[in-house]
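Below: protein 1.
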Amino acid sequence: MITARAAATFQPVGRSVAVARAFVRDTLQGWGFSDIVDDAVVLTSELVTNAVVHAGTAADVQCLRYDTAVRVEVADRYPEREVPLQDAGLQIRNPDSEGGRGLVLCSALASRWGVEYTPAAKHVWFQLDLPERSAGTRAASPALPTAALPLTDERVRVAVIQVNRHAVVTRWNDDATDLFGHTSEQMIGKPLTELTAWPQTPGTGIGLAEALLLSRWEGTYGIRGADGRVQPVYGSHLRVRDTTGEPSTVCLLVRADERAVLQSPARGPVNSDAASGDRGKAADAFEVFIGSPAPDDLDGLLQRTVERARDMLDGDAAYLLLATDDETELEVRASTGLPSARQRFARVPVEAGTGRYGSARMPAVHEDLNAVPGAVPLLAGTGMRSIVTVPLKVEGRLTGSLGVAAEAPGRYSNEEALRLQFAADRIALAVESARLTELERLRRGSLSFLVEASDLLAGTLERDQTLALMAQMTVPTLASWCAVYTIAEQSEPELAFVLHEDEDRIDGIKALLAKLNPPAPEPTPGARIWTAPSDAAHSTALRASLRSLGLGEAGRPATGPGTALATAAAVGGETVVLPLVARNRVIGMLTLGKPADERFRQEILELAEDLSRRAALALDNARLYSERTAISQALQRSLLPPGLPPIPGVEVEVIYRAAGEGNEVGGDFYDLFPIRDGCWGFAIGDVCGTGPEAAAVTGLARHAIRLLAREGFGGPAVLERLNAAILDEGARSRFLTLLYGELWPQPDGSAILKVVCAGHPLPLRLRPDGTVESAADPQPLLGVLEDLELVEQTITLDPGDVMLCVTDGVTERREGTRMLGDDGLADVLATCTGLTAGAVAARIQRAVERFASDAPSDDMAILAMRVPALPDN
């Protein structure tokens, strides 16, 4: 049921949009529905713009009040004009088009909406449900019966508290004592902030200490009473001067549920003609900036500021820019009435030109922008003709710029500039306070981000993992998508990694970037703009759309317009490139991108630059580590035999493990090689120590043994000459234990071994019945004595026998004070009867690994030889 109705008609001129906004705002505030005013004004603005600007007809606006909702109807006189929708969905035809955005907003903000056609007009309407509000508030009282109003004591207590410029209490009345339990004697001389508690909602943009510095402010917070409980209160604060001229603040506080006692009535914009040239009326017109509770964050405060500034001067558009830290550039932080191409966080220089009209540091009035092209780059191509801009200053510093524009020329004069400047002066401190709060939060977050990034990057030396970490740290924290290019020496940039916050779009972006020439590897620090991805994405989307309409080139592969548009939306915003410079060389490029109509904040670019420096060093360290590891592994592999030669009638298995990360060969080594027909040489040794130094002696020993054995020397002669070669190394020489032998397979299925055990753990022989015994006697190790007298021992392996040779990494395996030892090895070998040589070696390895919980700290080599048992007759 309709309980109230208000209607008005607006002519097809640009200023009608602002007048229509004011009409809807005044109507809803007069009905007490200030909670939905902002949404209603935004939707009305879009729909009236469609009527009077795009359709070019008069617009009829009607506001209908119901018990639980408000309905606003906007009708134009051009019913033939189609609804700019695509099929049944709410998708805009062109990403850069403004058509249809009003209906998209309706679907997002309104409870219900629709379009109705008549023979003479088209009605677009939306409905906003009224939120539930606590009884007793000024906005809710007209619709509530008396019985529904809140109950109070015999009287409403209004606490009057006065604080000086340091927030110290100088006055505390009896009602304050009744409400909070603290007496005036207890509170006078104490800071009020000791008792205050801000609302529980995190992210509040303004604190009580800052609020007390404003000329006037209202809001809800908590006061801690004498019993320790926090009581929600609503306060109205007025800043005054006492008799000595010192500033102080008078606080009027009531219980939160009695806020209607103090809450200021909602105010709409006043008529601009009546307020021209009158500073007092200008203050009233801009009272909404101060009298209303501040938004919870900086963005909300700035958006409300531009909307009120536009309404105050009856403009068609408004924008607000904030200065960067060095005050050389201004960033777009809020706008209304401008097309989407005027992207948020777009940057313009402070000095846009010469003279009064080109400076952001002074108020400026442009009667006709067509007469001074380029004076306001932000408005180029928007259709705005006249504009007034004023600076936001705090303590003489430029902190921002506020502008209001109109489509008609000559709309503004110095009087409007003075009004806007007066308003800007009153809001500048609150904006700067919120900006500094946000900046401090960003800096703290940036520091934490960089610390975490450094830890992650330092935790890996793998190139591919470093690339993945670089991308994952930037998406979505810094950018919507990221691409990393790497540059090898004397080569072109190569696309190495691509990541998008939506995994379904990674392939499309990767395919798009693969078609583009990579950005130039310039070593200049800082981010630079790269337009190629967005240009290519929009061009691809356009061609796909034309082909879908049958207007494209024949024979071209079909690309779905939906996929092309999605890719264009994903990479259609600003793209920046940061060089990855390490050790005075460009080793790659970090490319960050935003989706369509978005730009990077200066703080984000500075953070990305810091990250790129750390990432470049991590990536170069990974490259150097990979190169050194590859070289080391190639050299180490040369110290191992290429493979085990087959020996007729004998099974042979070797297991080798080098201690230390990245080492394939250490102090332990083995070899098995043919000496002559029917004879094979084998060796297993242990150089004192591990790592590359031990590996060097390993190479000397292995190659010398092969050479001497093939020259016809027997076992003792081979080891004696090797001992002399080790001693010739001087300070680089190392002790060496070595078991060397010759293997002679026999026609009857047995095998003869001639061995020399020079200080090495004795070989063990396993018989088929499980008996384990030593197969040689110990002799002096190599690298100590110059004159060695070694003897050769002969062993016969019968069918089914196993010969096990190990290094001390096996026998000296420890767990605390326990050691595997020779006896423990013999016990394990005794369980290997009937196993093949490979199975024997594997069981010994498992026993060594399971003996202790820690990873082995010494090199380990296991050589198992088995003569197969003869088949049963």
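Below: protein 2.
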Amino acid sequence: MATQLLSLGMFGVRLMDRILTAPAVLPHELADDLVDEINYYLPCTHGREQRMLFQLACELHEAMDEAFTRVDGLAARHSTIGLVNALLDQAHDQSRDPQTEP
């Protein structure tokens, strides 16, 4: 369920914790919390990881607003983890540099 998030190591664990524990009720509030976490970590990244997380941050608000009306229930939080995993998977594919990676 959380394969993509957990593949990010400690940052993925922190992001998952934020998804599950942030005091957000509305999707844009949770998206704000997640983007804040990404922006805090982004300067520590380089290359593909940086491109992938930047892409995730750009897409979070729209995806959350389309998928949810409220995010204050446990089921919505678990669905959010699935949504973030799907966005990470897409961002991972889009962040590949065709000139340096096969």
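The CA atoms of residues 27 and 64 lie 5 Å apart.
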